[in-house]
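--- STAGE predict ---
source: upstream dedup step, 1 unique chain passed
mode: sequence only
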Amino acid sequence: LVKAMVSIATELGVEFLMNQEVKTVTIENNSIKSIVTNKGAFAVDAVIGGADYAHTESLLPENLRNYNSLYWQKKTFAPSCLIYYLGIDETIPNLKHHTLFFETNLDAHIDSIYKHKQWPNDPLFYVCCPSKTDPSVAPAGKENLFLLLPIANDLQDDEETRERYLHEMLVRIEQKTGAKNLASKIIYKKSYSVSDFKNDYHAYGGNAYGLANTLNQTAVLKPSIRNKKIKNLWYTGQLTVPG
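--- STAGE serialize ---
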């Protein structure tokens, strides 16, 4: 779908400049005149910021931002997560395409995210095994696994911590499915967590899902879709009105 949209837009004269990071913007008379990326400067008529809202605003002088740092600190953000992409060198019995490992205390895990802001004990997690229904995503006799464990934002997610939780998730998968020694059968492994969301997407606190859907952060109570001080700057994405 995305490739088709790009193809149609290109035919209509749209130019896409990929793999560039916006570093600064040039503002005159309360309008953005150009943006400067790591590959050059580009004159603009208008700007739609699709990056993380707080990060986009960090490119502006403080007096031209919609919201200051205290505003973002007071917001309740959805969790970050620890993700593992695994290739397993055997088929795993008794595992469905989607499996929720919610056999531990839900409230305790939620408190670790929002109240204590620490790595959870006895975490809940989600497992997707798409090779159970789509044989094209893994060779015959092997499995494609996606593990997702929700965690608090701004946690230290070093490799040792990630691996400790991977081990715990694999042990619990073994207990429920009858599989044996899954760690020794991993032939592909990639992890993604808080620091990656920060580095790759400038996500505030390394969150994975934007603002939490609380009543005070819904609809018109979300951040404004347009900059109130810069005439040609708009924002888009989950953090904006209407979301």
